[in-house]
Amino acid sequence: MSQNPTKHTKVLIIGSGPAGYTAAVYAARAMLNPILVYGSEPGGQLTTTTDVENYPGFADVIQGPWLMDQMKEQAKAVGTEMIEDHISSVNLKTSPFEAMGDTGQKYTADSIIISTGAQARWLNLKSEQDFRGFGVSACATCDGFFFKDKEVAVVGGGNAAVEEAMFLTKFASKVKLIHRRDSLRAEKMLQKKLMANKKIEIMWDSVVEDIVGDKDPKNVKGIKVKNVKTNKIEEIKLDGVFIAIGHDPATQLFKDQLKMDKEGYLITKPDSTETNIPGVYAAGDVKDKTFRQAVTAAGMGCMAALEAEKFLSH
Known about the structure:
Distance between the termini: 39 Å
Low-confidence stretches: none
Number of strands: 19
Order of helices and strands: EHEEEHEEEEEHEHEHEHEEEEEEEH
Shape: elongated
Number of helices: 7
Largest sheet: 7 strands, mixed
Structural class: alpha/beta
């Protein structure tokens, strides 16, 4: 196949989702003719959630995949060029910046907005993937509301797991925290609050072996839990399972080029989306492990586009 000529743009947006699409809308409206390169899962984590009730502007429940389609169409309508390709390498030391796609396409850009997102870590059980969105979730703040007066489990032992368990007690009648070791990694203050909460029961030295439920209509009925010390397996009746064993930001691409924290999240300047390289911005879950909401990602996408526009005008 003949080599495509290099594609140049003032703003290259890598990754889709609320951050990337919002950045594209703002950049396109600023007449910057952005190129947005999206991978095999356009729309990111929101495409795996069904009911979205917390995105401002919609009185009725909307669907995650629908919201992402709308954002994508909006970005296109105002003049974003959308390209399906997987960026496999970037060079942020050159001017303009360079990026290579798996298709063999080379991109050059005067500024780059990174919105590659993060993936929740899963237990990798077949049943877990089967019931994803039907009682299995990786986001308590997104889905906790649907478990009013029901019994749920949270899997994990770090800050996120403890925070999710505490948050879920607002809705659920009972929360089981399932942790594979006999002590938590979470901060001591959080642990104290957790232990004091009557609705939470901790199952130590335990791992989830399987998730059980009905096929039609799809819903979770319980879990099988194995004690790692005795190997005893018990089945527990419940209505929901929240997996809280961490997230992995998609930042491999930028190793040794951009500053990141020990978990791989990109570090930006305070009140800004600018990374340690001027002209390179990061928005959404790729840099945010605190809020991880569609609306905060969209907000950062807007900030990144406005900062890129300012950078390019100087």
